[in-house]
Amino acid sequence: MEISVAIILIALILFIIAFMIIRTTRMLKPIPFVEKLESIDIDSNKIAEMLSKAIKIKTIASDLEGISFKTFLELHRMLEKSYPLVHQYLEKIVISEATLLYIWKGKNPELKPVLFGAHQDVVPADDQTLEAWTYPPFSGQIADGYIWGRGTLDIKSQMIALLEAIERLLADGFNPQRTIMLGFGQDEEIGGKKGAAKIVSYLKENNIQLAAMMDEGGSIMYNTIPGVSTPTALVGIAEKGHLSLRLHTEGQPGHSSMPGKNMAIGRLSKALARLADNPQPIRMKALKDLYTGLGSTASFGMQFIFANLWFFGPIAKKQVEANPQTNASIRTTTALTMIKGGVKENVLPHTAEAIVNMRLLPGDTIAKVCDRVRKIIDDEQVRFEPVEDGYWEASPVSDIDIPPYKLLDLTIRKVFEDVAVAPYLVLGATDARYYAEISDSVFRFCPFVLGKEDLQRMHGIDERLSVEGLGKMVQFFHELIRVWSVAEF
Ligand SMILES: [Zn+2]
Question: Is 50 helix (H, G, I), strand (E, B) or coil?
């Protein structure tokens, strides 16, 4: 009797293991082979000179009034001079003060246009770090195989590469089937309200829907995804929303020598502690999609786990939560960022307030998250509301089972050798979110290769891009513009 129970048990375990392995092998689908693209003959050094010129022009968004407005106009003049064919054959529309929309009319009006985005503005360089830069942040120095300065990675390089690619296509007599647009905002770094948002309003007023759009976002990364040694092109298919909440409460004011029980700071602190201790629920979807995209380029071990989350869910959850970056990919995050209360060490304040900054996972609406926050705080005396201009919903998630994504995936693999392509969730905010109103297919990708340490350079010290990398960007856009412009989608 006991033996037969043991046999049944062993058979059951073997059956479960076999079932798990079958599920894993389905996740491990190989990346189809593609013939490497024959590169077009381009002069990377000359393109580097162009980017260098653009870097030297200090287009900082935070002061796009008065003097600095002139810097944007200077950049426009530089572009006009450098890209004569673009300015001859494309319609250029200036929106707001300095936002640029270029339209290259296609032959076939039946096909919806596609739009490629980038932004002209850059963040300033912190005065206190200037000494630490190898070359000054607005020098546009070309040295050691790199172009150095603000905007090389974020993201004048994308703007220059797009213009170079179109200038080249025009020189070769290329005529697109569908209309190609370029949208270069002026204020991405401070919210994009006068730039991308206004481009989208303009297109909406003209009843234009886009077949697809591509903006800055992920890039080709080395050694950043657990269990993956192949460089991976991360294509953003969604971005998180944003919700800053102001919490405030009142207490009994008075002299600190005779405190009552109802203290504003105490009450607020309890609410904040509850929020910190009770994170928002997780959804593994973004990571599951990422590993599905990676297929056989991810290790068997990782795919075994992701193919069988029904079993490994709790273990995987622990691992993913331990890393702030992966944690942010699976849940709406809660960050306690500001607190204010009291003016004197011996006075009980009447009020106390705090700011909690949350980044919303697609699917978690502002209303839903506010509801959860109310339940977690569980104290009607602590009131909260979204900070003015400090909230927007997460973007929709673009489908990847459609021709624009598949062609993008293919182009990445054709231009960059031995690269895996996978969709991911962008944790910060980009101009691309505005385009969801006029397109279901919004992708966020910068065609350059980055190591882990390069991420610190964006908005940091020694931002730089290799001359060779810039050349590749031009190759990439030359191909993608060509492919997207003739494909029937
Ligand atoms: Zn940017």
Answer: helix
